[in-house]
# Entry
Amino acid sequence: MKKTWWKEAVVYQIYPRSFNDSNGDGIGDLNGVTEKLDYLDELGINIIWICPMYKSPNVDNGYDISDYQAIMEEMGTMEDFERLLEEVHKRGMRLIIDLVINHTSDQHPWFVESRSSKDSTKRDWYVWRDQQTNWECIFGGPAWTFDPKSNQYYLHIFTKNQVDLNWENEDMRKAVYEMIRWWLDKGVDGFRVDAINHIKKEYSDMPNPKNLPYVPAWEKFTEVEGLQEMLAELKEKAFSGYDIVTVGEANSVKSHDMEQWISEHEGKFNMIFHREALEAASDEVNGGLDVEDLREVLDRWQKAAHGVAWNSLYLENHDRPRTVSIWGNDRDYWFESATALGCMYFFMQGTPFIYQGQEIGMTNAPFDDIDMYNDIETKNMYRYNRKEGVPHEDLMKIIKTISRDHARTPMQWNSRKYGGFSTAEPWLAVNPNYKWLNVEAQKDDPKSIWSYYKKMIHLRQNWDVLVYGTTNLTDSGCPDVYAYVREDRYTKMLIASNLSERPCTWNTPYDAELLLTNYEKRVKGVLQPYEACIYFMKKEIYG
Ligand code: GLC
Ligand code: CA
# Structure
């Protein structure tokens, strides 16, 4: 495979609203990110991905953009952004930004103009219909909203304030490409491209045997026939000619469709985020991890990508609960399970992404009160289900496991008030465990989750085989142990993570040299609960 900077990189995702508040208004901001660049540099990060910082009314925390070429007031100014970019580059790191082009805010001047009248020159930049289809939107409720002034319905697959752009309209597409190139000319190093599997729609009703008011309509706006042609144009007219990295958010994609999305010969992006593994392996409501399912899916992606494409590797992001809470054990094996899960995904073929706070093992928030939550998805889900009569307690149980707010509580920097995130009360409450779970408590402790992550990053950056080698599962004999081998002409590495509380009988491979483990006291012939190890193996013997 061709060697490239973004394949060798480790990416850190920042949710700026929750990362660091520089001016004491309780909201994280761009200068707050700049202040922490040395922190990220010290951890070993190469690429920073920052979630939306554009002008936005914040219905979905910036994923509803009202001006693509301006910065949200609470985040700072365009100069702040430029300084951030410059400071990132000074440290030899790169910065990628979120590109939200499936929809805009209903406050975007394009939409304001579009809704002003049926004859507007921008009417067709969005989707207007006399008749709505029976679709439900992703965050609950109908996917169409009636506009009494112009007497038609407009489409929104997320919330009614996130209006879908009409990708069939050439002028609209041109405006979007121009905007993208404007950012590239500014020097950003690429994009994470939001919800990009949804830009093409098929406007027909869903079958509705149960006579629901609205029907989940995923297949009508996900990977619809003709999407790939649209993406090819996006790549050619917006991305081509720059040395950048693009990562498409395309949750629905399965491994057998990988080629058209990300292969080196016909892919439209360098990587995508899919959700197949996370979905297959989790019990959303009760938590818990099915290691066999996880292994089946991830191995399929590893094999399909071999020599063809490049994987993105991630456990967490701003849309998911904390892994140590849902897949690990954040009570009795907090350190062990956080590091074992880290070790499991970090050394596969692909580029690893770390979500802010993951490197210190941040956990789900214990909020019991629905008013402590902020996320529009969580709130809508609660509201719509209550209306249908689902009991409060049942909903709270789900929310406490899966709400997106678990990933969005402020970053825990130290044990001072508000976790050192801000001097004022934050927009979303800090997880009360910040008193002991924070960066300051871990950074100088060689036995912390932070130090383990730092060592993993270092290992990956120092061993070519961990980037470009082949990946093959190896059988440990225990179903809950995820073990695989990376190998190239010169080197062979074995990675084994026990992802359960059950010890596994395990014989250290003969002549293997241990490079990293999360257990100080090892027991011969056993992988202890959540024990994770990386071994270097002499190639002459095994090759
Ligand atoms: C993506 C984002 C999510 C957002 C949605 C709508 O899935 O990751 O946070 O709510 O798109 O833009
Ligand atoms: Ca602030």
Notes: The chain is about 30% helix and 15% strand. Residues 21-23, 25, 27, 29 surround calcium ion (ligand 2) (CB under 6 Å).
